[in-house]
Amino acid sequence: MARLTIEKLTKSFGDIRALDDVTIEVNDGEFMAILGPSGCGKTTLLRQIAGFDKLDAGRISIGDAEVSALERHVPPEKRRIGIVFQSYALWPHMTVAENIAYGLTVAGVRNPERLRRVQDALASVELDGFGERRPGTLSGGQRQRVALARCLVTEPALVLLDEPLANLDVHLRAAMEDEFSRFHTRTGTTMLYITHDQAEAMALADRIAVMDKGRVLQVASPSQLYREPADATVAGFIGEGMVVPVDVLAVNGDGTCCADLYGHRVRMRCALTQKTTSTARACLRASDLRMVEPSAPGVRARVARAIYQGGYFRLEAHVEAHPEASLHLTAPEPFTVAADTAIQLQVADGWVIPPSQNAAKR
Amino acid sequence: MTHAAGWRERVGDTSLLWGLVGVVAILSVLPLARLLLEGIAPNGFFSSAALTRVLASPTTWIATRHSLVTAFGGTIVAVAIGAVVAALVALTDIRGRKPFVFCFVLPLMIAPQVVALAWLQLFGPSSTLLKMIGLAPAMGSPNPLYSAQGIIALLGIQYAPLVFLTLRAGLRTLPRELVEAGLAAGATPFTVVRTIVLPLMTPPLVAGIALCFVSCLGNFGIPAFLGIPGNYLVLPTLIYQRLAGLGPSVLSEVAVLSVLIGVIAVVGILLQDSMLKRRDFRLMSASDFMRPFELARWRLPVEIALWTLTIAVLVLPLCALLLTSLVSTIGVPLTVATATLANYDYVLFEHAAAKRAFVNSFGLSATAAVVILLIAVPLAYFLAWRRSPLLRALNLTAEMPYALPGVVLAIAAILVFLKPLPLLGISLYNTIWIILFCYIARFLVLGLRPVLSGYYQLDRTLEEAAQITGARLLRRLRTIIFPLVAPMATAGALLIFLTAFNELTVSALLWSSGAETLGVVVFSFQQGGDSTYAAALATLTVAVTIALMVATMFTTGKLAQGILPWRG
To answer: Cβ contacts (< 8 Å) between A83 and chain B: which residues?
Structure first.
């Protein structure tokens, strides 16, 4: 078990900045997810932590030991970390037991101690009796569990999981999510979980680091990420938030403010340090919007599309005064409003995105 | 803790890499550089005497012309046969493809000198086979194969499989959509082949032509058996005659001749490169194998034609060889009464050099195969997974001794090893070790290529998963990587073994008493007029070769697909 400290990490491939000034601190025993779309740099980050690639600037420490810096690069085999690969990377020429025992053999652990630990590892992933099988004869979920057992048998200080569920069927994912969760609780190992699936990240992680274009946009708990996104990109990426321009008219001092949205007064949540401004942006959720009587106060919009999604409709509408602004919300079945009909939308909640601290840097 | 250990590990990696760089340099750069040096500075002094003497000699230019004529002629024959057969096998619905490919590729695996010997036994006044069917020409009439046309024909037959293999490999990557789009546009299959398939197949075709040209140019066995008797000399046989007749005193001159043939080969390779650079031939990802064109009523005639060709170029000469090996003396008609196994008895149990040659050839081939794999597996690791300009250069360097004609390497090796090794004071010249050195240098790439393709097919996370558990490079190579590339490596080893087992070009120049190879003994039997002994020994090598090839056909799955040319 160990803390993982990543400070100002930078890595370029040719002209492309794969990692740009990345700083993340993972606490001892924490389950941290790195979330971002493909190409955001999360796999590069994982390879840096594992030591497969050398960095251009910054430093990485595991526990108290610095493992990557400009003048120092501890090779992967000396880092005492475990990885569960997306492809599982089980050695096809070895049995399941031999796969799991490999790291112990390398570390010089002898029988019967080695045998016992392999049996324990197999039992812990509920694969007792599978030791003599070949990886090729196992199902996807079983292979995943073997990979997990192989990774954990050497009791690494830090476990990296590289999109471990990406190759599994949907119905298996929920079961494996449970497995990872239980494992984390039982072993207390520090885990870093790379994924592009926000539902997965939300379900598993203590905290999530959102990455985009090589930069870390926000590190926060799942709930804070959803309720209080730090910038417009996070707001749009997490939970499909709508980013809209607002005037902050008055700040109440209790984390709420009074804002004007397309001429409609709304009470919104905001940072305690929020100032009144006419150039703020807010994040709205579909659940914050509700259709009301045309005479009620609200934002007037026109229905662009109604898409049936099973049990409810997803409505897309353009604000009448600002046709370039698009909003979306859900409407229960039955829903009979035709396209281009005017509707009145009441906005119940919202989050004023704090002014960017790195605005100057960009 | 980690700092010191990490440093040690990095040094371990680096020293392995530099060790491999050193090995390749000794195998490839050292001899070729020494050869070039000899060309401009014989015996260490700059002098153009040897150069001028060789370039002023008409013999040089006659041999060069002969080399070019036979190489071009052989290439044309090989392309004509190889391309048509490749198109028929890869694009149409002929039956019995597997046995056909096996038989068609077989000449490539049989030593050129054996092919030449077999064909000589097929034609000519003393042909045992022709005598049996009463078609032998009158005694005293010349064997038509002792001529430039004979050399060209046999070179063409020997290397048609090379063109076939490169072209078929290309046809296999042809996306079926491209062909189907052509058919959907209303083109007939023939038009599609002419306007879509052929233009797209330019790269493999050009590569096959270049490969074929360089192979014809460097071939020693065929012009040695067919050209020397009629004094039709090409560059490799000229070099051989000079060296065999006059010994190391003419080394500077033969070095110049070797450089000359090397230059011609390099020009051929460069020409191929420049031809392919001008156009974009890249194919989008291939989805599926193309559905073969139906030959319909032409299928049976085409099949008959293909098998007739196979019987003519493979079965007949080999039968002639076998029959000759069964008569007591050339000219004696073969009947049940005259058939004898005495020739086999002689070469297997009586003739000392022939007995030694079996041991030598087996030993050399097996040792070369094992040593090459021990070099190739770690070398390919760096080549495949640690790309850098140095490694790209190293890959090219490793290809050189194989790409250049065999005589070039042999002469270079003599130059390097004629004098005793520094520090050790041992001379490798006139020992079997110089042959082993050349086999390892020359056939390294035959082992390297399959292993490299094994690495490219391998998911690198398999190695990374081992690395993360703490396994160091040597352990990863031993426990993870070697087992995973073993099928490819075994296939490569087999290819090396068969090639070295049938080798003559290098050993003809490097053999010494006690260090004879099978090729050398067959050659000297034939030169001494003992065609029946030569035929018996050649039949035995063919039998070993075919037995090994057939054995691989039954180990399905164990040996990697696509490495052994005769396995469709």
So the answer is: 464-465, 468
Q: Which amino acid belongs to residue B57?
A: S
Model confidence pLDDT, tens digit, residues A128-138: 889 999 888 89
Beta sheet of A4-13, edge-to-edge order: A16-26, A4-13, A57-62, A65-69, A72-73
Q: pLDDT (tens digit, 9 = 90+) per residue, A282-335?
A: 999 998 998 888 888 888 999 988 888 888 889 899 998 888 888 999 888 877
pLDDT digits (tens, 9 = 90+) for B449-507: 888 888 888 888 899 999 988 888 889 999 999 988 888 888 889 889 988 998 888 99
- The C-alpha atoms of residue B290 and residue B179 are separated, in whole angstroms, by 8
Grouping H, G, I as helix, E, B as strand and the rest as coil, residue A315 is: strand
- This model of the complex carries an ipTM of 0.77
The predicted structure's pLDDT at residue A360: 36
CA pair distance A334, B305, nearest whole angstrom: 74
pLDDT digits (tens, 9 = 90+) for A318-331: 998 888 888 999 88
Sign of the C-alpha dihedral, residues B500, B501, B505, B510? positive
Which residues of A are less than 8 Å from B475 in CB distance? Answer: 106
CB atoms within 10 A of CB B12: 14
- Annotate A189-208 with three-state secondary structure: CEEEEEECCHHHHHHHCCEE
Kindly determine whether residue A107 and residue B465, on different chains, have CB atoms separated by under 8 Å.
no
Tokens representing residue A129 in the block: 């009796």
Task: Please give the Cα distance from B446 to B399 (Å, whole number).
Answer: 9
B contacts of A163 (beta carbons < 8 Å) = none
Give the full edge-to-edge strand order of the sheet including A81-84.
Answer: A81-84, A158-162, A190-195, A31-35, A207-212, A215-220
Task: Say how far apart CA B515 and CA B245 lie, in whole Å.
Answer: 19
Tell me, what amino acid is at A154? T
- B55-77: per-residue pLDDT in tens? 888 889 999 999 999 999 999 99
Domains and their CATH numbers in chain A: 4-227 (3.40.50.300), 232-361 (2.40.50.140)
